[in-house]
Amino acid sequence: MLKSSQNSAHPSFSLKWYEKLLDVSPVGIFFTDIEGNCLEVNQRWSQIAGMSREKALGRGWIKAIYENDLNYIAQKWYEAAGKKEFFCEEYRFCTPEGQVTWVLGEAKPVFSDEGAVEGYIGCVTDITASKISYSQISQTYDRARTILQEMPIMLFAFDTQGKLCAWNTESERITGYSAEELIGADNVMELLCPDKSYRQEMLRLYKEKGDSYINWEWKITTKDGVIKTISFSNISEKYPIDGWANWGVGFDLTPLNDSESKLRERIKELTCLYKLSILSNQHNLNLEQLLDEVVQILPPSWQYPENTCARIIFEDQFFTTDLFKVTPWKLSSELHVRGKKIGLVEVYYLNEKPQEAEGPFLIEERLLIDEVALQLSRTIGHFYARRDLSLMEELAAKSNELERFSHSISHDLRTPLTAIGGFAQFLKKQIVKGNYADAETIAQKIADITTRMENRLNEILKLAKIGKIINPEDEIDFEEIIDDTLNLLANRLEDSSIDVKIEGPFPKIIGDRTRLIEVLENLVDNAIKYIGTAPNQITIGCRREDDKPVFYVMDNGIGIDTEHFEHIFELFWRLDSNAGGDGTGLAITRRIIEAHGGKIWVESGGQGKGACFCFTFGHVTAE
Ligand code: ADP
Fold first, then answer.
1. In the chain, what percentage of residues exceed pLDDT 70?
2. How many CB atoms lie within 10 A of CB 314?
3. Does residue 505 have a cis bond before it (omega within 30 degrees)?
4. Using a 6 Å CB cutoff, which residues line ligand 1?
5. Residue 310 CA to ligand 1 centre (angstroms)
6. Is 181 exposed, middle or buried (0-12, 13-18, 19+ CB in 10 A)?
7. Pick from 24, 112, 321, 424: CA 20 to 30 A from residue 364's CA?
8. CA of 420 to the centre of ligand 1 (A)
9. From ligand 1's centre to the CA of 528, what distance in Å?
10. 571-606 per-position pLDDT tens digit
């Protein structure tokens, strides 16, 4: 069957060597005659085809071919044979047990010396393993392609000509442009970024960044004109892909940005309400100061703080932010207290803004202004209630004082009146008796008592007027008050050899200078009057209590028992009627101090322990 080669290179190289070669060949080898009848197969062929040599001979080999491939292979074989050409096809063997083996079958015609086809020699190579891995690869490839196509992240790629060549489903969903519309198109950038200057700026930046960037935000315009923020990452330098000159992924930040900005708006609104509640609880602010502060916290809570101004109208007063202007873009809410409209809270945009639920305003802003108006109405209501309460308290105190006052007046005036009445009777008797010398003495006594009464009435009148006399208020240096007072009392101090000690520092006071001198004069005058035995000393000073200044006039005189601490401030009250005073000084002093928003009290360890008169003022400034 095999012919020995006439050109054998070595004499010992014989046909046996070829037969051995057939045995060791890693490929199956077969020989057929011109009709395709199998003349011989090697061992490897039998292994691959799963058919013995004996069964394969003649037409037997055909049964080894997988049924489905048979027609196709036969056709190809006869085509090649007809043209005396090389045959090369992939096909399958199948054993009776059903085991399939993929092979690459190749065959060549064998020619006689005369050039006629004598038969065919061919080989089959088992390619099952590579077929399996190819199918696995293509499956993996298909899966990867599906993932890239359907993943919820935008995927884009440009080819070497700069034309878009990949645009997945998410890219289509986000932009509204289909792959069909964009792939290969010349105007992709114009469609996605229609704003020319923005596009040029981004392309300029792209030239700087090159094909390697992470999370670069672009404003993309969708097919229906919505602007979306996409974070693009280009990783083509790190992961080059054949045919994709530059590619990357994109993530739509718009929903995130939207919720972030909504959250920011809500935080602003909550901050506004929080500040409002803080201000509402600041009891040191009066109503005007409160409204002045509240109006300032409104613009920062609106969507465009820098283009927002606000106004609160309360009764006939206006409280506005700086740069206030009435414009057509207004949101307002009414203030109501005790069922009555007392004002308005208004917010204006200084220029036109895009349409929202409430004109250019958000629905949340409508809710916010209503809530602000409601809270503010409540706070104003509390102010009214507090004002009413303190008016009532003041009224009650005034009425108590009036009662005490009229009681002491009637008591103090009754005594001299009774005396006058008695003297008048006596006078009448003396006149009847013709005892004119005594009558004259009695008349003189009546005149003296009348003068004293007149003096007292003057004091009462003076006291009654104190609250009403409004001298212009000054910022006063308390040390000047001390100097003026000590000058007035200089002679008396000298006569009594009293040493006056000053213990500052003193803050400045807002008040009525003349009245304040009167206060200090009364207190120092009393300290001189009720001074004890030597060494005599009066101290005028100022100490701090609860961080507020407390002024005092202290002596080392006769002192006061605790039980008299309150009485001494009543009109005409005196501990010792033989002492020099008339009991009006401290009552007047208290009236003046209270008219200045302050308080006065006495501290003393009792008789012989000296007295310390302490007082405060409603308005003091820094020391
Ligand atoms: P007057 O001194 O004219 O009697 P005041 O109203 O000034 O009237 O004082 C009322 C009373 O308070 C005095 O009569 C005196 O009993 C008592 N008093 C006032 N100042 C002192 C003081 N520094 N030390 C002791 N007692 C005082």
1. 94
2. 19
3. yes
4. 526-527, 529-530, 555, 557-558, 560, 568, 573-576, 579, 581-587, 611
5. 58
6. middle
7. 321
8. 27
9. 10
10. 777 777 666 677 888 988 998 898 888 999 999 998
